[in-house]
Amino acid sequence: MKELPKQFSGKGQVKGYEFNQISATPYGYIYAKTSAEGSKTFEVFKRLENAIYNCISYPTDKAFGIWAWNPGTKERALKILLEIGEREGAKKLKLNAVNSPP
């Protein structure tokens, strides 16, 4: 599975932005998004594995509000990432409990 790059320059809709991964967990990521003028925002999103392309998907604009968010601060981004981990970890625990033999 090809992982996301730690740093990259935006293309297409996000041309002119630089992206730097500031946090990664088994369940999600936070990237700092910096404009050419120097303003910084954050993108936090769930880890989604794309089986067709054998890679991790980076969210497009359509993913925001569904499995990706653009919080106003780094602190809020970290809180969302923690919440993603709690939800996804709980789902995994439930699946393991259901699939484990008696």
* β-strand amount: 25-35%
Radius of gyration: 15 Å
Structural class: alpha+beta
Number of helices: 1
Q: Biggest sheet: strands side by side, in what order?
A: 1-2-3-4-7
The biggest sheet amounts to: 5 strands, antiparallel
The shape, in one word, is globular
Q: SSE order in H/E notation?
A: EEEEEEEH
C-alpha end-to-end distance: 33 Å
Q: What is the domain total for the residues? A: 1
Contiguous runs where pLDDT drops below 50 for at least 5 residues:
97-101
Q: Can you give the mean pLDDT?
A: 90
Helix fraction by DSSP (H/I, runs of at least 4): 25-40%
* Record field, number of beta strands: 7
Molecular structure report:
Mean pLDDT is 90; it is low at 97-101. The protein has one helix at residues 74-99, and strands spanning 7-9, 18-24, 28-34, 40-46, 49-50, 55-56, 68-69. It has one domain (7-99). The N and C termini lie far apart (33 Å). The strands form two sheets. Strands 1-2-3-4-7 form a five-stranded antiparallel beta sheet, covered by helices on one side. Strands 5-6 form a two-stranded antiparallel ribbon. The chain is of the alpha+beta class and 102 residues long.
